[in-house]
Amino acid sequence: MFEQPNGCIMIERRDVFQAIADPTRRMIIQKLSQGPLNIGQIVEDFGMTRQGIAKHIKVLSECGMISITQKGREQFCEARLNQLDEVIDWVQASRKVWNQRFEKLDQFLKDTKQ
């Protein structure tokens, strides 16, 4: 939560777009797409502290991009790649809109040449 200048309190909603906005989180998702890993295994490939990676893991979990399960003393993270369907749908819809706009522009340019 955070307070806006007008005094309204906003609840920060995390979504898949926020999850993939950061390159470190994209790399974590890519690494987890190979299979579940514990946090220590995730930290190995990054030049970051365990706490830094834990913050990214928290965002990914809040966005629904990963699930975390406790096994003994370790936490294992697993990618939930089906969450990327929202991004795929958005890209496809955006592509359709832009293709229609380009077709209209192309037709306009053809009409003005005549």
Written overview of the protein:
- The protein is of the alpha+beta class and 114 residues long.
- It has one domain (2-81): Orthogonal Bundle (Arc Repressor Mutant, subunit A).
- It has 5 helices and 5 strands; from the N terminus they run ββααβααββα.
- The strands form 2 sheets. It has a 3-stranded antiparallel β-sheet. The protein has a two-stranded antiparallel sheet with strand order 1-2.
- A hairpin with a 2-residue loop joins strand 4 and strand 5 (74-79).
- The chain starts with a strand and ends with a helix.
- The mean pLDDT is 87.
- Residues 5-99 form the HTH arsR-type domain.
- This is Metalloregulator ArsR/SmtB family transcription factor.
Question: What descriptors fit this protein?
Answer:
WH_DNA-bd_sf; 5 helices; Arc Repressor Mutant, subunit A; alpha+beta; two-stranded antiparallel sheet; 5 strands; Metalloregulator ArsR/SmtB family transcription factor; three-stranded antiparallel sheet; WH-like_DNA-bd_sf; 114 residues
End-to-end Cα distance: 58 Å
Mean pLDDT: 87
Helix content: 40-55%
Structural class: alpha+beta
Which regions are unreliable across 5 or more consecutive residues at pLDDT < 50? none
Helix-strand pattern, N to C? EEHHEHHEEH
If you consult CATH, what is the topology?
Arc Repressor Mutant, subunit A
Can you tell me the CATH superfamily? Winged helix-like DNA-binding domain superfamily/Winged helix DNA-binding domain
Biggest β-sheet description: 3 strands, antiparallel
Total helix count? 5
Write the CATH architecture name.
Orthogonal Bundle
